[in-house]
Every structure is written in C-alpha cells, then in structure tokens.
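Task card 7
Instruction: Convert sequence to structure tokens.
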Amino acid sequence: MSKYLALDVETGGLLPHHSTLTVAFVIFSPGGVELDSLHLKLKHKEYCVTREALEVNGIDLIQHDLEALPVEDCQRLAKDFLKKHSREVDLELGNKIALCRTMLAAKSPELEKAIKSIVKSCVAKKHLKPIGSQVEADIARIKRDLLPEWESYVSYRYINLVSIAQFLADCEILPLNKFGLAKLADHFGIEFKAHDALEDSRASGEVYFKMREILVNSQGCF
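Output:
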C-alpha cells in the first residue's frame, strides 16, 4: 500500500504573489505511524510579505533568511525526499528471484536477462497520498514554486480534511460544525503549534487517522 504524505505551506500573505516561506512534509505509514519528515525554509532575493501574515505564522523574516536555503537547494531536497518514499522494494520476492538468477545464469544467459528484468520490477513506484487542511491550495503553490514534477511522486487524488470532517458531521459521527485544523485537532486531543508548517503537517496526518478510526469503528449511518 502507498504511504501518506501530510503537508503544509506557510506564506507571506494570502495572495498568489506573496512569497512561499516554508514547506513541510510528514510521511505516515498506511497504518498511521510517522516515518519521516522534512521542513524546508525557502530563501528569496526579495520577499513579498504582509505584516499580518508574519504575525499569524510567527515567522521572523530576518531570522528566516539566515536559516533558509536557496530555492534550488529546497527543490533538490524535496525531490529526493519524495522520490525515496514513493519507491517500495519487495525484498522477499527480489531475493528469491535473485537466487534463481544466480542458479540459472550459467545455463541460460537469456533466462538470466529475463529474471534480471523481473528483479528490477520488484522496485515499484507507489504514489504518495497527500493529506492536508488547505491541501488543494498548498499543492498548487508547491507545484508552482518548488516542484513542477510533483505528480511524478504524489497522487493527484488528494485527501481534504475539511471535506472528510464535513461528511462525518453530516453522518452525525463527528459532533462539530467548524472544521479548521485547530478545531479538529482540539477535538481529538492533538496538541500542536498552529501555523508552523511542520507542526501543521504532523497534526493533519494525526487528525486524518483519528477520523478514519472513528469511521471504521462507528455504526453511524452505514
């Protein structure tokens, strides 16, 4: 099964021309275990930000610029991270085929070539499943500013926490009428620092698996 990619982006404002400041990814296993994370701070020659946005996300722009990496470096790190987690290796099958290849290679070079091809197929690309609260807008910004080849590693089918929460509320499974990440996290007892990209990403993943759990365990409207 594919892994899940919880994500968040913090920007210098609400408009498209405002600078992308931080991007965070958190990888979860299909069972909801956190496996890895990446927090990128993007350096720009010129920043386009609003005071209100920086107050909300708590970013000190001077400190940010000292710690940030050039966009090109962030692109490389993001690509390597997503590439690593979108590839899965069937080690057991691969080892068995490799053994057969060794045993048969001397007798049939053509058979050895065919088995080698099968071994390569044991390394399968599985697109990550993206999760987020503002996931559609965040993905659009990541594709524009950081990783145009996003869909080489991540599924185009995204998981929107707000939509899931609204559905569960309509089924009278989730007793909420507001579905922002802070409200959802509070309901499930998840503590995090809001508007920090890494914290938001982690909380998004945890909220998703909490909602999945109550849906699986609930008789609800099903």
